[in-house]
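The protein record filed here:
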Amino acid sequence: MRGSPHERRRQNPFFFSRFRGFAWVISQWHAKPRKREGSVSPVTAVPLPNRRSEEWRYSDVEAAASVWPVPVPKSIAIAPGASETRALVQDADEGSVLIRDHVVTVGAGGSLVFHLLNCGGRLGRVTFDVTLHEGAHFELNGAIVGGGAQTLEIVTDVTHAEPGATSRQVVRSVLGGSATGSYLGTIRVARGAQRTDAEQSVKAMLLSRTATANAKPELEIFADDVKCAHGATVGELDAMGLFYMAARGLPPAVAKRLMLQAFLADATAAGGEALEAAALARLEALL
């Protein structure tokens, strides 16, 4: 295609401009025909992902590119002193690509508890960018259950911007087949954000030798009066535990299900009946 870059953009609505190794979408609003009625949903202007970016290192970037650009992040604002609990079941159809981004602000003394089950689609990616003000609290209870060739991810970036804020993140993953499950979580404690109390607990259970679990909890601390902890483990079902249950008459499939259900309960028990039922159904399908 000849002509100036401007002329090429006019001729081709999918023209991309390369900038420092990233592909920036130039004509994102022309990727689909505009509707005559109603408003056009805004989309993100961030660059197309690639594995050179730390937060996309373990992802299915080809699947992400097929739906890029994605909608702008959903904004959640908790007013000072207010409390809110939310639940999300991400159970997209097989082969689907779903990327859900959230930008969360919790005002002084406010609280947000978020329950999440991520179990659907070829790529299921849920992210949280959280800012906590003085005395605020954020809690994430996340479960990943995947099989086949799925890629399922939870990505968090929690900033303790002011003193006295607390955060707690619990993530449990059960992965079979050749599935990949990832948790990438960063806790940032700003200067002056004293008396911060933050915790990350990440555990994954692999049901096959071809499944992969990635856990990358991180702390970035610029205050000295804080309490921050993180831990990550990846393992398999306890063979002795399965033997013990089988010796008492439980069929192997039932023993596996009970052990995995108990393992996920750390993240799903408080999520409500619908989320627990969805997790159990996905678990049974996996077994």
User: Anything to note?
Assistant: Residues 1-53 form one domain. The longest strand covers residues 196-206. Helices lie at 5-11, 61-65, 239-247, 252-268, 273-286.
